[in-house]
What does this fold into?
Amino acid sequence: MRKLKKKVGIVMLASVVGLTSTSFATPYTIKEGDSFWKVSRQYNVSLEDMLKENKANKNTVIYPGQIIQIPGKEEVKISSRGGIKRDVPDLTEYTVVDGDNIWDICKKYGVTIESIFEANKGIDENTVLKVGQKLNIAKQNKEQQNISEGSKKDETKVSSQNVNESVEKPSNQKIDTEGKYGEYLDWSKVDGLIPRGTKFKVIDFYTGKSFMVQRSVGSLHADCETLSLEDTNIMKDIWGGFSWVRRPVLVQIGDRLIAASATAMPHAGNDKAEGGAYTTWRSGGYGKGINFDYVKGNGMDGHFDIHFLGSKRHMDGQTDPQHQQCVKIAAGLNK
It folds into this structure.
């Protein structure tokens, strides 16, 4: 009898050990500035395993919004009965009909586009859906619903601020900029002063002409949009049309002037499509993907770049020498 109990115990132990040592991949949404190497360091996995898990190589290009798999990082829980309990989402199957796109399906079910990607391996923002195709829709749990509802409240709050121009007024006040230079302030500080959605004034360093903008996206520098067609026309007048030329500018935040550098070339957006949604065309040769155009009717498709001290390019994570030179000019450090 003792031998039997001992054998049963060994079998149970082997079963538990075998299950708990199994590794599972978990999805990760690429952010601006990410690379396979950077994400592998963040999750403490080898670059080789990361590339193998995603059937990629060192030359594979990844882009914001793309879903990749992190090898061996799915959370596994031990239940009180000694078995394994994994958090598996409650899925609903949806059959694609004519005219469907991922964004509309997300709105229909009240889920995020990231949850669609996570529940359907091989699906991303560039995927063209086919009629009859089956999609898994992950139902939100109470915690996710609360987060979603909280986000909607925040969006409503921001929209209300926009209508009342409560954010715009402090930045649009008249201050004397003649002969003044801007603060030589590092991007790590500026990033907190102008979070996404913030409206502020941009003043051309050489001509003194100014226009209003909104920081819409961007993590390594500020990706901005003009607030109106009038603002776009002023910007084009300064640059002589849409242009990638770097110019020193002053960014007015309340009564502060920050040294900066800007271009005037809108890119990665479609003014006729919903901001943040999937679109089949984006300006600047960006092709289909997530639409980075949130301000409508302003006469431009997408956003333009504003750099500060220490800010970097999104394409390679490096500082732009020409932008940094213009920032110094705006700060009075390179006369």
Q: What stands out?
A: The domain at 89-145 is CATH 3.10.350.10 (Membrane-bound Lytic Murein Transglycosylase D; Chain A). The chain has a mean pLDDT of 77. DSSP finds ten helices and 14 strands in the chain.
